[in-house]
Amino acid sequence: MSLLPESLEAPQVVEVNWADRWQVYHRLQELAIPCECEMSQPLRVNINDSITAIQVWSVCQQLLAPRNNLISWLQRCWQNS
């Protein structure tokens, strides 16, 4: 999955599995991140700043990363706090 946009002007295509893209889309909508997901089209997200890019990455990780990766990430967060 590539989330680093070449240009921040146009919506960026976020490559996620077709079966998962609606769940990612709805979560981004809840976070008020402008995005569109039309039938038979890829998920497009307006990534206008680094915070939005991190939020999009985080949503994708939470929904798509293997469980053991999420556990390791959470443990590292606890150790650093």
List keywords for this structure.
single chain, 81 residues, mainly alpha, three-stranded antiparallel β-sheet, 3 helices, 3 strands
Write a brief caption for the model:
By secondary structure, the protein is mainly alpha-helical. It is built from 3 helices and 3 strands, in the order E-H-E-E-H-H. It has helices at 21-30, 50-64, 67-80; strands at 12-14, 35-36, 43-45.
| Alpha carbon gyration radius | 13 Å
- What is the helix/strand order? EHEEHH
Strand order of the largest sheet: 1-3-2
State the end-to-end CA separation: 28 Å
Low-confidence parts = none
Mean pLDDT: 85
How many beta-strand elements?
Answer: 3
* Molecular shape: globular
Structural class, from helix and strand content? Answer: mainly alpha
Strand content: 5-15%
Sheet with the most strands, sense and barrel status: 3 strands, antiparallel
Helix fraction, binned, reads 40-55%
Number of helices: 3
Kindly describe this structure:
It is a single chain. With 81 residues, this protein is mainly α. The protein contains three helices and three strands; from the N terminus they run E-H-E-E-H-H. A three-stranded antiparallel beta sheet has the order 1-3-2, with helices on one face. The longest helix has 15 residues, at 50-64. The chain is globular and about 40 Å long.
